[in-house]
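Record 1 of the preview.
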Amino acid sequence: MAKQKKYKIDEINPNRIAFNPENVRDESEEQIESDENFQRLKESVFEFGVLVPLVVKPLRKDNKDYLLIDGERRLRAALSTNQTSVPVHILTKSNKTEEMLYAFQIHMLRKEWTRTAQARALKTIIDQTRSEITKDKLKVSEEEIFDAVQEKTGYSENSLRDLFRVQKYVKYDNTILDEIDDSKSNIKFSHLVQLEASFVEQVKRMYPELVKHYGLKTIREKVIEKVRLGVIDKTREPMNKLLPLFLNAKTNEQKSFLKTLVIEFLDKKQKTSDEIYRSFELKYPVNKEDLIKMADQAEKKMEDLEAILNSFHAGQFSIYKALKDELLNRIASLVKVLNQTKSRLSKGRI
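->
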């Protein structure tokens, strides 16, 4: 038996349709009106009418007969150009998740939704899917929910995996998606993906005791704070600087040292991923190329330092006692490190 359709196509007056306050695009009327693409859409609707049907469901409230499920821009363009009718899919039997899935499929086919809009829509679908599965099971794994959502939405595994990673942050703070859409915000969609994949998931894998100590919520809050402060300013930085550390820490000694770096990274707001990367690289060079690069950098820095020190005139520091004392302390510390390095090199330990 053929599956009965839950919608029918009709033509109705756009004035009978109420806008949906839960629009996943989360755009204000002012944002829409200022968009050049919307202006072109209005020109098209004025000349040809609305060509792609809206999706609505019966409402009968506040002098409106239908609630908009999908097509806010087309509806606004129709109203703005005084269209007397628009094509619509009328959902006759639906729930919130089915409505979202319907809109989801339309926009995924037309590639209109941004990734943040997809993340907003997906939250509803994930919550409903979890609720459906837990009716029959006491305990449900994230992979079971992932597989069920993938079947519903038709997403590729990689794309859906990234959206699920973003949901980990949205679960604690819904305003994060608003931050992503704000051009003044440091946070980008790819920040959340890379922080989760290249850092949080790796900490879970290698150091479950740290997860137990901090809690995943706190770990995510700490790394997001670094993005907000600009301490992590590039979206690929976690992949380039943090992930290699977890992949290259092979021995127990290396893992133990990396653990101290991870704790330092989490506990100090201004500690950068580049700093802990260099700390690990200095102690455990990954390969010959890294070692040569480090040697070249050390040689160049020592040449620069030698040139600077040769230009000093000690007598000029006599009236700046605090500055002189600080410099002497730093030189003493540097001499100690240089002597240790010299000793380790001579003994073949590095």
